[in-house]
User: Which sequence fits this backbone?
């Protein structure tokens, strides 16, 4: 189990990758972001996207899937997150892209009011198959501290 005490500021993690499919882009857009450039090749061609593009919120959801699978597989003593800061969508994500998710711990703080936990901040960058950044954000993560008897 990975606890607060096991984390080092500056540590980098490669969380993994995600292949973006046309079917998933369309399905997400129909349900959650039904703007024409997320639903139609013809409409997307009329915009700066040039072709069908994934919703930024879909990019965030795909990124979360990659991070969550990594955290579960590596048994992190996580307690959720109160939020993210500075979310930026820097380039469009298209069907056929492969997203790569990497994070760097930029800060860690023990809780003053809850001695059994702490928090850390991770700057996450998502790149496509050409290593071009498509999204970035800083997340705040709550995590248990190592039990005293270990």
Assistant:
């Amino acid at each position: 189990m990975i606890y607060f005490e096991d984390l080092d500021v500056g540590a980098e993690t490669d969380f993994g990758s995600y292949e973006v499919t046309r079917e998933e882009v369309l399905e997400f857009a129909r349900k959650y972001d039904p703007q024409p450039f997320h639903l139609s090749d013809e409409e997307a061609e009329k915009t700066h996207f040039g072709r069908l593009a994934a919703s930024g919120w879909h990019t965030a959801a795909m990124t979360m899937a990659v991070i969550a699978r990594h955290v579960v597989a590596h048994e992190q003593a996580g307690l959720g997150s109160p939020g993210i800061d500075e979310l930026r969508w820097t380039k469009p994500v298209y069907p056929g892209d492969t997203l790569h998710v990497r994070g760097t711990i930029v800060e860690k703080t023990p809780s003053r009011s809850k001695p059994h936990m702490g928090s850390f901040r991770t700057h996450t960058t998502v790149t496509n198959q050409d290593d071009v950044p498509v999204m970035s954000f800083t997340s705040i993560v709550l995590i248990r501290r190592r039990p005293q008897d270990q």
Summary: The helical segments are 22-32, 36-39, 41-45, 56-73.
